Amino acid sequence: MHWVRGMFADGRSPRDPREALIARLRSDPSLSPAAIEAIGAVPREEFVPPDYRSLAYEDAALEIGPLATISAPSMVAAMLTVMDLRPGMKVLEIGAGSGYAAATVAAMEASVIGLELQPELAESARRNLELAGFADRVQVVAADGAQGWAAEAPYNRILVSAAIDAVPQDWMAQVVVGGMIVYPEAGVGEDVLIRLTRLEDGWRRQEMGRCRFVRMQLGGRRPDVADYE
């Protein structure tokens, strides 16, 4: 069913903003049903600042702090679709922010470790996940994501929730064969969503669509990057 400007095509109004959002996502054939179901399972109002709660189900990115945003639900759904998650997978998220994307990954029955450079955001993400009911499946660590998180490696998927210029070698070393790194590659004006899949003898790089993200903040030394062409 097609949804336009807050109404269904037959003139009926959605019952609430959350229902309207899900209807809109379902009208996009590029998004997987499982990804849309995960978006619907997460109360986004628990992950936005109090002043923005009325906008929680708008399909828009919202500021959550200095140089940090919560991505639009459609963008998160696109990333979930590209990740091709399966129950029981282990996922590392670089740039956990408010914890929203990690919660949607957990809603797909994966376990998540989220790294967040800003300690205050990491603490807020833990509270949000507790309130939303996902604390048992998501661990948020206040840490620089430049070197990944070797303590819990390897991972089936690495999700990068901010734009980067290149993929650090440490991230690539922490992915299993058959695993993926999904990230926004920084561009001029807009970014490109990339799916990098680890093969037995190398890597496969796929451009999955255009996007726009804030730039990744990495503390400490500049990470080594790898050539995967």
Give the strand tally: 11
Structural class: alpha/beta
The mean pLDDT is 89
Helix content: 10-25%
Q: Tell me the overall shape.
A: globular
Radius of gyration based on Cα positions: 17 Å
Based on the coordinates given, report the CATH architecture of one domain. Answer: 3-Layer(aba) Sandwich
Report on this model:
The protein is 25% helix and 28% strand. With 229 residues, it is an alpha/beta fold. It has a domain of 137 residues: 3-Layer(aba) Sandwich (Rossmann fold), CATH 3.40.50.150. Helix 1 packs antiparallel against helix 2. It starts with a strand and ends in an 18-residue tail after the last strand.
Please render the helix and strand layout as text.
Layout: E1 3-4, E2 7-8, H1 17-26, H2 33-41, E3 62-65, E4 68-70, H3 73-83, E5 90-94, H4 100-107, E6 111-116, H5 119-132, E7 138-142, E8 155-160, H6 169-173, E9 175-185, E10 191-199, E11 202-211
Helix pairs in contact: 1-2, 2-3, 2-4
Provide a brief overview of the structure:
With about 230 residues, the chain is an alpha/beta fold. Helix content is about 25%, strand content about 30%. The strands form three sheets. Strands 7-6-5-8-9-10-11 form a seven-stranded mixed sheet. The protein has a two-stranded antiparallel sheet with strand order 1-2.
